[in-house]
């Protein structure tokens, strides 16, 4: 159940060599990229400065 | 007079001592240790046959690394099946109706399988979070869905056992009360309700055994993925 994919029959080139949904390393990299993106989006909104809202309120 | 149908699920205490500790220790006295004789008596023979057969069946799909878990799975199965079955006796307290106990069993064991998987085969464990052959636009969505389903597992394990046992006990009490109340009013209906109660009790015996087995089986499946 859920055997390891040898990935020998897939010949990827370019970015698909590292990020694909067939080889186990490709899947791992996709998962890590998704987590990193979510973390990045979360950090972006958390650390975003709110100066524009304060200026609009004042005027 | 039964004031609330949920009183049977209150964790019993006596002079401040939580009696759930006694209820949890009770299965230990039901299974005597094997003496040095090969064939001691019928009960011990049956008991050891059951334990050996169950452990053998459960460990079939696991590799050698998973065999270390044999003692844990066998003892967990015996523990749960004994607690569930004893709870079907009238006026007994069933510890496995307490969500705290079931989550206390499910979360550490599930977490152990996840940590083993991440530690020993990190790439494979992480790669499992994306099904093979997923179309590219669906990859982020599926990663999120698979992560959520991973974290839902211990909750589902604990809540499944709690809900099944609680619902069964509640139904038994409701139908028994109905049969008892209807007896002076409509004896025929009360008799039919009593027949229904008998069938329900048989069902609950099956559910008690099946739910214990499902708990341990799912844990062994989670271990299979990670070992």
UniProtKB/TrEMBL annotation, chain A:
Signal peptide: none annotated. It is a single-pass membrane protein. Keywords: Membrane, Mitochondrion, Transmembrane, Transmembrane helix. It is found in: Mitochondrion membrane. It comes from the Eukaryota. It holds the Pfam family ATP_synth_reg. GO terms for cellular component: mitochondrial membrane. Its main location: mitochondrion. This is Up-regulated during skeletal muscle growth protein 5. It comes from Dicentrarchus labrax. The gene is atp5md.
Automatic annotation (TrEMBL), chain B:
It is found in: Mitochondrion inner membrane. It catalyses: H(+)(in) = H(+)(out). One of its GO terms (cellular component) is proton-transporting ATP synthase complex. The chain crosses the membrane at residues 12-31, 69-89, 101-118, 138-159, 171-199, 205-223. Pfam families: ATP-synt_A. Its main location: mitochondrion. Keywords: ATP synthesis, CF(0), Hydrogen ion transport, Ion transport, Membrane, Mitochondrion, Mitochondrion inner membrane, Transmembrane, Transmembrane helix, Transport. InterPro entries: ATP_synth_F0_asu, ATP_synth_F0_asu_AS, ATP_synth_F0_asu_bact/mt, F0_ATP_A_sf. It is a multi-pass membrane protein. GO terms for molecular function: proton-transporting ATP synthase activity, rotational mechanism. It comes from the Eukaryota. Belongs to the ATPase A chain family. Component of the ATP synthase complex composed at least of ATP5F1A/subunit alpha, ATP5F1B/subunit beta, ATP5MC1/subunit c (homooctomer), MT-ATP6/subunit a, MT-ATP8/subunit 8, ATP5ME/subunit e, ATP5MF/subunit f, ATP5MG/subunit g, ATP5MK/subunit k, ATP5MJ/subunit j, ATP5F1C/subunit gamma, ATP5F1D/subunit delta, ATP5F1E/subunit epsilon, ATP5PF/subunit F6, ATP5PB/subunit b, ATP5PD/subunit d, ATP5PO/subunit OSCP. This is ATP synthase subunit a. It comes from Dicentrarchus labrax (European seabass). The lineage of its organism: Eukaryota, Metazoa, Chordata, Craniata, Vertebrata.
């Amino acid at each position: 159940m859920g055997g390891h994919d040898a990935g020998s029959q897939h010949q990827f080139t370019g970015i698909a060599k590292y990020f694909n949904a067939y080889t186990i390393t490709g899947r791992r990299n996709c998962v890590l990229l998704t987590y990193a993106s979510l973390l990045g989006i979360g950090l972006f909104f958390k650390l975003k400065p709110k100066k524009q809202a304060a200026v609009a309120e004042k005027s | 007079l039964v004031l609330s149908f949920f009183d049977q699920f209150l964790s019993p205490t006596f002079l401040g001592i939580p009696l759930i500790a006694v209820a949890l220790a009770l299965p230990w006295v039901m299974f005597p240790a094997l003496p040095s004789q090969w064939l001691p008596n019928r009960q011990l023979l049956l008991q050891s046959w059951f334990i050996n057969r169950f452990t053998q069946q459960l460990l079939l799909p696991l590799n050698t690394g998973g065999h270390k878990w044999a003692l844990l799975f066998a003892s967990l199965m015996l523990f749960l099946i004994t607690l569930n079955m004893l709870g079907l006796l009238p006026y007994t307290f069933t510890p496995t109706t307490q969500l705290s106990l079931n989550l206390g069993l499910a979360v550490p064991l599930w977490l152990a399988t996840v940590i083993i998987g991440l530690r020993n085969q990190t790439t494979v464990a992480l790669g499992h979070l994306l099904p093979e052959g997923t179309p590219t636009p669906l990859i982020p969505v599926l990663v999120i869905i698979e992560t959520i389903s991973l974290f839902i597992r211990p909750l589902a394990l604990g809540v499944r056992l709690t809900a099944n046992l609680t619902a069964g006990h509640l139904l038994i009490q409701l139908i028994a009360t109905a049969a008892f109340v209807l007896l002076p009013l409509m004896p025929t209906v009360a008799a039919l309700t009593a027949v229904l109660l008998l069938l329900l009790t048989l069902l609950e015996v099956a559910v008690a055994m099946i739910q214990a087995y499902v708990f341990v089986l799912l844990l062994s499946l989670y271990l299979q993925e990670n070992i």
